[in-house]
Amino acid sequence: MRTPAGNVLWDCIALLDDATLDIVRALGGIAAIAISHPHYYTTMAEWAHAFGCEVWLHEADREWVMRPDPALRFWSGDAVRLPGDVSLVRLGGHFDGGTVLHWPQGCAGRGALLSGDILQVVPDGSHVSFMYSYPNYLPLPASTVRVMEERLAPYDYDAVYGAFQDAEIVQDGRAAVAASFRRYLSLLERGTLA
């Protein structure tokens, strides 16, 4: 993500080779790295050292860090603002510190939410879903999803960009996420889709 205060790398990939370094440097380097949850922790320290920046991780997921490093910056609470006027918002979910990134200037000023798979964009791009374990198809309990909904409520955004190719909602994302919360909670609590 490119901001006037520097680029923010979201959910870094494991591969860090010379070609990748050259491309990222040509784009202006990295001012900060933010990671949604421990599934993306693999080479975060190597990325941070290569670009001389910090990695922002939620304190609730500290136990999952296998290689402590001075570049790791743990934050607590439900939100923190990074350079470039972007915010990390702790929703929880399949990890206690599960985080999304809110970018108010994204999508030509309409706002964007980078969700990783904390909010999983479904294949048709009309909704998101919430899981405790994706490989085992275990859902999150309604109480956890209600907390996620409350923590996300203050943020405006038009687009949602998920973790995988084509996992995006390019317009009316806030309405789609709100409908997803209603649908999910209705099914869990009343046994019917809203």
Poorly predicted runs are: none
Shape: globular
- Whole-angstrom Rg: 17 Å
Biggest beta sheet attributes: 6 strands, mixed
Total of DSSP H or I helical runs spanning 4+ residues: 5
Give me the count of strands.
15
In round numbers, the mean pLDDT is: 94
List strands and helices in order, with pairings.
Blueprint: E1 2-3, E2 6-10, H1 18-26, E3 32-34, H2 44-51, E4 54-58, E5 72-75, E6 79-82, E7 86-90, E8 99-103, H3 106-109, E9 112-116, E10 120-121, E11 128-129, E12 131-133, E13 138-139, H4 142-152, E14 159-162, E15 168-169, H5 173-190
Parallel strand pairs: 2-3, 3-4, 4-5, 9-14
Antiparallel strand pairs: 1-2, 6-7, 7-8, 8-9, 10-11, 12-13, 14-15
Helix pairs in contact: 4-5
Describe this structure in words.
β7 and β8 (99-103) form a beta hairpin. This protein has helices at residues 18-26, 44-51, 106-109, 142-152, 173-190; strands at residues 2-3, 6-10, 32-34, 54-58, 72-75, 79-82, 86-90, 99-103, 112-116, 120-121, 128-129, 131-133, 138-139, 159-162, 168-169. The longest helix is centred in the last third of the chain and has 18 residues, at 173-190. It is an alpha/beta fold. The protein has one domain: Metallo-beta-lactamase, Chain A (4-Layer Sandwich). α4 runs antiparallel to α5.
What labels describe this entry?
single chain, 194 residues, alpha/beta, Metallo-beta-lactamase, Chain A, six-stranded mixed β-sheet, 15 strands, 26% helix, globular
At a glance:
With 194 residues, the protein is α/β, with parallel strands linked by helices. The protein has helices at 18-26, 44-51, 106-109, 142-152, 173-190, and strands spanning 2-3, 6-10, 32-34, 54-58, 72-75, 79-82, 86-90, 99-103, 112-116, 120-121, 128-129, 131-133, 138-139, 159-162, 168-169.
